[in-house]
Amino acid sequence: MRNVLNTLRVLEEVAARQPIGVGELSRMLGMPKSTVQRALLTLDEAGWIRPAEGEVKRWALTTKALAIGGRASGDLGLRDAARPIMEDLRRRTEETIHLTVPEEDKVVLIERLETSKPLRISMSLGHALPLHASANGKAVLAHSGADVLQRVIADELPRYTENTITDPDQMHAELERIRERGFAVNRGEWRTDVGSVAAAVVGPEKPIASLSVNIPVSRLTPESEALFGQAVSEAARTLAARLGYA
Fold first, then answer.
1. Is this entry keyworded rRNA processing (predicted)?
2. How many domains does the chain have?
């Protein structure tokens, strides 16, 4: 049983940080490298992960994880409803558009439409993002129930970059700003080069998804934040209405 749990922990960490190598996984999980290596070889043989490109061996998810996730959560219907709205959002912003869904204490990328611009944000389907350090995650967190907020923001939050909000009081204030203006902004809080603006797709009781405009942080300005925020908020409301939510 311990080996199975270790393998699943390695799979979750690969999903959250891909591409990632044995050494980094060992440090993040507090496991011996030999244990991590055995888990990676098992996941590779089962078709869940694959070696990423590059001279140093690093690992990334395969599409098998996305396919299983889609069947488990019914995300395929959501993706079908969202795609034309995402197409319109990409046309309006000329940037990469992401659709994510909440899953436990993270959000998972289930659909993306890429910009034609040469400098872009590239992220594989099935990638998991932290709730407190991504625009999609913060948009979802801002509209989540008190039980979720208490669980996620109970203690000091994990730091990914120098811009990550780690103080619980600061995070609560950030979530209040998101609720007031209707969208969340990530200014290099998860990765220093990644900027994004996102809005939650809110169901009758909780957020069911989030849409985001994703750009290199160098293109994220106060002007673009406002424009993208308005566009993605309208798109999120349109998707909620299309799914039958007021």
1. no
2. 2
Q: Give the domain range for residue 9.
A: 2-61
Q: What is the pTM assigned to this prediction?
A: 0.70
Residue 55 has which token pair?
């001279």
| Least confident among 89-93, 148-152, 179-183 | 148-152
Task: Based on the fold, state whether residues 116 and 145 are members of the same structural domain.
Answer: yes
At CB < 8 A and 24+ separation, what contacts does 148-151 make? 149/175, 151/105
Q: What's the chain's length in residues? A: 246
Distance between CA atoms of 216 and 89, rounded to whole angstroms? 17
For 213, the 3-state DSSP assignment is strand
- The CATH number given to whatever domain includes residue 54 is 1.10.10.10
Q: Is the pLDDT of residue 68 over 70?
A: no
Q: What is the CATH number of the domain that holds 162?
A: 3.30.450.40
Q: Which residues contact 133 (CB under 8 A, 6 or more apart)?
A: 157, 158, 160, 161, 164, 165, 186, 189, 190
